[in-house]
Design brief:
It contains nine helices and ten strands. It is of the alpha/beta class. It has two domains: 5-134, Response regulator (Rossmann fold); 151-264, PAS domain (Beta-Lactamase, 2-Layer Sandwich), CATH 3.30.450.20. Strands 2-1-3-4-5 form a five-stranded parallel beta sheet, with helices on both faces. It has a five-stranded antiparallel beta sheet with strand order 7-6-10-9-8. It starts with a strand and ends in a 7-residue tail after the last helix.
């Protein structure tokens, strides 16, 4: 929790204001408190900024806590706002919470104040951490989209049934099909019949969990009818329960099929 906290306190009774200050200090909460009594002073303090938390009496002679809450939520939707009252009834407390109050504390139970403040600030920290994680995930997702779309390697996310879920531009150009056309067919449809059995066996071993990945050099039948050699690398994307979710494949197709044919005998067909 931030220390010291900068607290704005809407309170017209100096004795209650002093009690709040001493209660928080006794509860181990280091804070600086700005105490105001009127709407104008409250709004001015909000506009100056730098407030970590608001404590507000429920009823004042010329102002009230619900109005202060409405003003606060319009400008700072996530700023912690705790209602303090000596006369707050159950219905009023429910109305305050529905209107966006973080919590409420009865003045006759001041010991609960420090706990309410700590809990409110913990929620602030958790929301900030959640936003930070989301920003990191969003940035990572953006980088991955760039890598996927701009890669010179053909990349496909494939379902367990062997059908492409998503393919990148490089793979579409290699095989001569649009992404939509690839999504409607299985990769077995593009594999040369003589290479299908070896690829299918390795694929099933991976699906069964007997291997995490495999590589194989095989022939592809492209849309234009040409036969092209390619080196395929496939990895299993496992779920939390170690079940195969979706295989992810990388494909490199040679621009010169003859070079692949001449060197094929010198290479291992798979690892």
């Amino acid at each position: 929790m931030k220390s010291p906290l900068h607290i704005l306190h809407l309170e017209d009774d100096p004795n209650d204001a002093a009690l709040v200050q001493s209660t928080l200090e006794a509860g181990g909460i280091a804070c600086t408190i700005t105490c105001v009594q009127t709407r104008n002073d409250f709004v001015a303090a909000l506009e100056r900024g730098g407030i970590d938390l608001i404590l507000s009496d429920f009823a004042l002679p010329t102002f009230d806590g619900l109005s202060a809450l409405e003003i606060t939520r319009a400008k700072y939707p996530s700023l912690p706002f705790i209602i303090l009252s000596g006369t707050l009834g159950e219905e009023q407390a429910i109305d305050a919470l529905k209107s966006g109050a973080t919590d409420y504390v009865l003045k006759e139970r001041p010991a609960r104040l420090a706990l309410a403040v700590r809990r409110a600030m913990k929620e602030v920290e958790e929301r900030a951490e959640k936003r930070r994680r989301k920003e990191v995930l969003d940035q990572t997702a953006q980088w991955l989209r760039i890598v996927f779309s701009e890669s010179i390697l053909g990349i496909a996310l494939v379902g367990v049934d062997g059908r492409p879920v998503i393919t990148n531009t490089a793979l579409q150009k290699m095989l001569g099909y649009t992404g939509e056309e690839l999504n409607r067919r299985s990769f077995a449809d593009f594999t040369h019949p003589k290479d299908h059995a070896a690829d299918a066996e390795l694929y099933q071993q991976m699906i069964r969990g007997e291997r995490e990945s495999y590589q194989i050099e095989k022939r592809y039948i492209c849309k234009d009818g040409q036969e092209r050699w390619g080196r395929l690398s496939v990895s299993a994307m496992r779920g939390r329960r170690a079940t195969p979710a979706s295989p992810l494949g990388w494909l490199r197709i040679s621009r010169s099929a003859e070079i692949w044919r001449r060197n094929l005998s010198k290479r291992k067909k798979w690892k």
